[in-house]
From TrEMBL:
SUPFAM superfamilies: NAD(P)-binding Rossmann-fold domains. InterPro entries: NAD(P)-bd_dom_sf, SDR_fam. Belongs to the short-chain dehydrogenases/reductases (SDR) family. This is Short-chain dehydrogenase. GO terms for molecular function: oxidoreductase activity, acting on the CH-OH group of donors, NAD or NADP as acceptor. It comes from Brevibacterium jeotgali. It comes from the Bacteria. GO terms for biological process: fatty acid elongation.
Length: 297
């Protein structure tokens, strides 16, 4: 039996707050710029308040937003967040609620982007144990802390509006099939699939939609530090705009039929996913790696 395609109301970006973690540079910065340019109020985070604020100022300077034919200044604010520190997550959660009230824009999309990779490639018995542990702490436990803190706010937004809210995790092919050179990174990303599965199972009926989005291989400080990518040139890298376009589509509601699934920028496009949505069946996509839960529709 084919699962029904969800038809969520179109999201009004101007009244839908987006949080992007780890947004001072790289993919997170590109995503924050994309959401701001689309009209969303955006909170960008970095471990230091100075980095977060500088990123917010830079995004405002680069973004041009038009509302009802008039150019408006994007609403972007930078706030410190260390996902590995419970006190920082608690303080950030309070700040999200305060800014949402100030801007009259409830939190409707959380983008878990903050992440890192171990410095060395090779057998786990030869790498630095603390480096490995730090990757798990940031990429998996850090996401858990942020999700646990902000999902109640997201669910409240869904209850008050009667419309879905969304979490987009920056995942990876390393989580889906593994990258042996980076065992900690792969394990952390695989763990995100299991967190998402639980979120889908417990949150779907309350309006929560969850997506695991792999950005492909975008040229960034992190990927350029990985010897396994030394061979890449030109089109071997994923264009940042492809990641932004897919994230915006996921946040818009047009791809809600894909909740609980794994999508990949540079391969999947908003148009290809939208076109395939009517063929989805719970627990069966012909590709088990794409399916996180059988309880999706």
């Amino acid at each position: 039996m084919t699962a029904p395609t969800e038809h969520a109301p179109a999201v009004d970006p101007t009244s839908s707050l987006v949080v992007v973690t780890g947004a001072s540079r790289g993919i997170g910065r590109a995503l924050a710029e994309g959401f701001a340019a689309a009209g969303h109020p955006v909170l960008v985070t970095a471990r230091s308040a100075d980095s977060a604020r500088a990123a917010a100022v830079g995004i405002v300077d680069r973004s041009c937003v038009h509302v009802d034919g008039a150019e408006v200044t994007p609403r972007v604010r930078g706030i410190a967040l260390d996902v590995t520190a419970p006190d920082s997550v608690a303080a950030f959660t309070d700040e999200v609620s305060r800014v949402a009230a100030e801007w009259d824009a409830p939190l409707r999309t959380l983008v878990n982007n903050a992440g890192t990779v171990e410095a060395s490639e090779g057998p786990i018995w030869e790498v630095d144990a603390e480096d490995m542990a730090s990757v798990i702490e940031t990429n998996l436990i850090g996401v858990f802390r942020v999700v646990r803190a902000l999902v109640p706010t997201l669910l409240e937004s869904a209850a008050q509006s009667g419309e879905p809210v969304r979490i987009i995790d920056l995942n990876s092919g390393s989580g889906a099939s593994g990258t042996t050179a980076h065992a900690a990174y792969s394990a952390s990303k695989a763990g995100l699939f299991r967190l998402a599965q639980s979120l889908v199972d417990h949150g779907h009926d309350r309006g929560l939609r969850v997506f695991e989005m792999a950005p492909g291989v975008v040229a960034s400080d992190m990927t350029r530090s990985m010897p396994m990518h030394d061979h890449r040139t030109g089109d071997d890298w994923t264009a940042p705009q492809a990641v932004v376009d897919l994230a915006l589509a996921l946040a818009s509601g047009r791809l809600d039929a894909w909740t609980g699934r794994y999508v990949r920028a540079g391969v999947d496009t908003p148009e290809s996913l939208e076109g395939a949505a009517g063929t989805l069946t719970p627990g069966d996509l012909g590709d088990g790696l794409r399916t996180l839960s059988v309880r999706m529709q």
